C-alpha cells in the first residue's frame, strides 16, 4: 500500500514540474535563423528601407533606370546619352562650330600661339595681317581719335610776392656746396639745439622753409644751421640744381 502511495505522489510531482527547453533551438527562441531574419527586417523597416520578402522577384524590366526623385517616369539608359549628345551639339553650333571646353582640372593647358623663337605671334605682322586688313586698322585708329579730348593750354599765373620764401628759388640762387661756412654763427650747445629743433619738422624742406621765414640764412634764431652754410637740418639744394642742369 505504501509503495502504491509513493508511486502516485511521484507521478503527481512529475506532472507539476516545468518542461526543460531544447537547447538546440536557442535560449528563448524557437528558431535562431528565423530570429535573425525577423531582426534584419525590423531594423530595415525602422530605417525606412524595408527589405523585400524572401524569394521576391522584381517587376522592373531588365535595363530600366530608376526614375529621379519627384519623377514618375522611367528613363531608358540611352535617353540620357542622347540628351547629352543633343546638348553638346547645340553648344557647339552656338560656338561657331567649335566644341565647348568644359572646365576640368584634367583638361590640358591651352596651346599658345608662338613662333619659332618663343615670341607671341601678336608681334608678327604676317600673323596680324592675316586677321585684320589695313582698312580695318585705319577704322580703329579713326575711332580712337574721335574719343580724344584736346585741352587747350593755359598761361601760368604769376606767383604773388607775399606768400613767403621759396626754397626752389633759394636753391637756384645759391652756388656754394653743402657744408661751406658762409654765415657767422654764435652760441653754445649748438649741436644739441640743432638735433632737438630739427626733430620738430617732418622733412628737411619744411625746416628750410621755416629757417628762411625766420631771417635765414643771415640769422638762425632756431639753431637749424649751426655750421652757417645756409642750409637747415640736412636740407640740400642739389636736387633742384640738377633739375635745371646745374
Summary keywords:
246 residues; mainly alpha; 9 helices; elongated
Note the main sheet: none
What is the CA-based Rg, rounded? 52 Å
Low-confidence stretches: none
Number of separate strands? 0
C-alpha geometry: elongated
Helix content: 25-40%
End-to-end Cα distance, whole Å, is 156 Å
Structural class: mainly alpha
Describe the protein.
The protein is mainly α and 246 residues long. The chain contains 9 helices and no strands. Among the domains are: 117-146, no CATH class; 168-243, no CATH class. The chain has helices spanning 2-16, 32-46, 77-93, 125-129, 134-146, 167-173, 190-198, 204-213, 238-243. The radius of gyration is 52 Å and the shape is elongated. The longest helix has 17 residues, at 77-93.
